[in-house]
Design brief:
single chain; alpha/beta; five-stranded parallel β-sheet; two-stranded antiparallel ribbon; disordered C terminus
Length: about 290
């Protein structure tokens, strides 16, 4: 699946959960492997900047013919073992994908028998998200591919220029950004520092969860990038943890829309965007979509 198609599907699918993805690539450098995963630094699309979503929902799902959607869904590899799936087979959309579905937040067993439907509806409404989280996924800029250690993989002159342009573009949107969460790796940290100069006052948070890695074995396999099997096991669990920590609908207590920037890596962004790709393809073919 192409990144552009996956992004369109993800934006359309997750909009129903009060979280919107935005990403537009602004540069590219020659590819050299699977993303830029460690220990083999891969080549690079350059820093990706984001633009705000249009007022109408992206048409990704609507443009996919049912026959094509069914064929694509059939060719998708099974989800990793650590990804929970509802019981049953076939296509579905898990409305509780982030475990924040209002009904799931209410303990019905403790509900007073005398409580009527009106009170239940009121409690459900109290748990519903009132705002939307706008998530901007940005890949770090071009960096030194010949560096042996992470500290040596610094941005190239072109990479620094890319980050400057990305920061300028984000600032020109006129949005009130809440925070920048970035990978703790050198190239992502440097990209963040340059971008943040254009967004004064926006807090920065560094996390190891967003570090580059090998989240899932590529299917079909590629000959130029073959991490050890244990790397998928270790990196996959960590990047899945990043998804669960950072990608979710707005909290019910959040009153206003938020705008958050994530600066990380190719494989991490691919994983986040494609996290529910099979579900969305099946939904496009006519299965229940929420």
């Amino acid at each position: 699946m192409s990144f552009r198609r996956a992004l369109a599907l993800a934006a359309c699918g997750l909009a129903g959960g009060s979280v919107l993805f935005s990403a537009v690539a602004v540069g590219k450098q020659p590819a050299r492997g699977g993303g830029d995963a460690e220990p083999r630094p891969g080549g690079s699309a350059a820093a990706a900047a984001a633009v705000p979503p249009a007022s109408a929902a992206p048409p990704g799902l609507l443009l996919l013919p049912p026959a094509a959607a069914a064929a694509a869904a059939a060719s998708c590899p099974p989800a990793p073992g650590w990804i929970e799936r509802p019981a049953g087979t076939g296509g579905y959309w898990d409305s509780n994908w982030d475990r924040r579905e209002p009904l799931a937040l209410i303990n019905l067993k403790k509900k007073n028998e005398e409580t009527g439907e009106e009170e239940l509806a009121s409690r459900l409404d109290h748990c519903k998200a009132k705002a939307t989280r706008h998530i901007f996924l940005i890949r770090h800029s071009q960096y030194n591919l010949d560096g042996r250690a992470d500290k040596d993989r610094t941005l190239t002159p072109l990479g620094r220029e890319q980050a400057e342009l990305t920061g300028h573009r984000l600032a020109s949107l006129g949005l009130k950004f809440d925070q920048i969460i970035h990978s703790s790796m050198t190239r992502a940290t440097e990209t963040t520092e340059i971008i943040s100069k254009h967004l004064p006052g926006v807090k920065k948070i560094s996390t190891d969860l967003l570090r580059e890695g090998a989240p899932i074995e590529p299917d079909p396999p590629v000959s130029h990038w073959k991490p050890e099997a244990v790397q998928y096991y270790e990196d996959g669990a960590r990047i899945e943890a990043a998804f669960r920590n950072f990608i979710h609908r707005a909290d019910a207590k959040q009153e206003e829309d938020s705008y958050e920037i994530f600066v990380c890596h190719a494989n991490v962004i691919r994983y986040i965007v494609c996290r529910k790709h099979k579900v969305l393809f099946l939904a496009a073919s006519g299965e229940r979509y929420s």
